[in-house]
Design brief:
Helix 1 runs antiparallel to helix 2. It is globular, with a radius of gyration of 14 Å. It contains three helices and six strands. 31% of the residues lie in helices and 42% in strands. It has one domain: 2-Layer Sandwich (Alpha-Beta Plaits), CATH 3.30.70.120. It starts with a strand and ends with a helix. The strands form two sheets. It has a four-stranded antiparallel sheet with strand order 3-4-2-5. By secondary structure, the protein is an alpha+beta fold.
Length: 108
């Protein structure tokens, strides 16, 4: 395992698979992510405008790099139907070297 300082997982929720697939394809086409995992039927509970909400959503996990984060955030904000889309960045502490090599190659 190697340190992975410049590698990030970005969490974004979408209202349905159609939107999630469109976001994933746009990010991959622009090489802003090496991979995007879609996890359907996520149940989200949250506060929105002083009201407790509950929705079924799709969670997207974007595998991105430090160099691509700003462009990925702009793309999500531009294409996402939510007024305030989730965009949470999680650092990757360590990963396999071969996987990191593929990750870098896929985002060039």
């Amino acid at each position: 395992m190697k340190p992975a300082r410049n590698f990030f997982i970005v969490l974004v929720t979408a209202p349905d698979l159609k939107v999630a697939r469109r976001l994933a394809k746009a990010a991959l086409d622009k090489r802003l992510a090496a991979c995007v995992n879609l996890i359907p039927r996520l149940e989200s509970h949250y506060w929105w405008r002083e009201k407790l909400e509950k929705n079924v959503e799709v969670l997207l996990l974007f595998k991105s790099t430090a160099a691509q984060l700003s462009a990925l955030e702009r793309l999500v904000i531009e294409l996402h139907p939510y007024e305030t889309p989730e965009f949470v960045v999680v650092s990757v502490a360590r990963a396999g070297q071969r996987y990191l090599d593929w990750w870098v190659e896929s985002t060039r």
